[in-house]
Amino acid sequence: xxxxxxxxxxxxxxxxxxxxxxxxxxxxxxxxxxxxxxxxxxxxxxxxxxxxxxxxxxxxxxxxxxxxxxxxxxxxxxxxxxxxxxxxxxxxxxxxxxxxxxxxxxxxxxxxxxxxxxxxxxxxxxxxxxxxxxxxxxxxxxxxxxxxxxxxxxxxxxxxxxxxxxxxxxxxxxxxxxxxxxxxxxxxxxxxxxxxxxxxxxxxxxxxxxxxxxx
Length: 215
What we know:
Helices cover 78% and strands 0% of the residues. It is built from eight helices and no strands.
C-alpha cells in the first residue's frame, strides 16, 4: 500500500507543479490533490490497521502515508475553499521538519528512502517559504522542482517497490541523490528564464495571497 501511495504522489506532485507554472488551472490540481489525498489517508489507515506488530518500520511507513495524504487534502481544500494558504504554509513547514527526521530514521535501513525524504522535505519547505513567509518569488523554482523531481522521487521508486526491485544499496541512494541535485539545479535554471509565467493562467492557479494581488 505504501508503494501505491507513492505512485499516486508522483501524479499529484506533477499536476501541482504544472499548476504553479500556470500550465494547469489551480482548481483542477486542487481536485486531484483532494482525491489522491483522501485515497492515501484511507490506504494509510488500512495499512496501519491490517498489519499486526509491524514495529517501527510499519509506523514510519504509515507516518509518511498520512503526511502526504493530509498535505494533498489540505492543498485541495485550501484552493477550493479559498482559505488563504497561510495555514497550509505553516503546515508544510512542520511536515518539512518531520521529513528530515524521517530521513534520519530511514538512513541505516533504507538509504534510498532517506534520500527521497530529504528531497520531499526541500519541496515542503519551499511551500512554507512561499505561503507562510510570503516569498512568492520561489514559486517558479518550486513548480519546476515539482515537475522535474516528481517522477524520479515518486513514480519510478513506486514501480521499483511494486515489482520487488527496490534497491537497498548505498550506491543506489548516492545515484538518486546526485540525480535529484542535478534536477534541482536544472529547476533553478529554468525558473530564472521566467517561463512559463503563472499569471498567464487564470488567478485560480495562484496561491491565496498572489491570487488576491492579481485581482
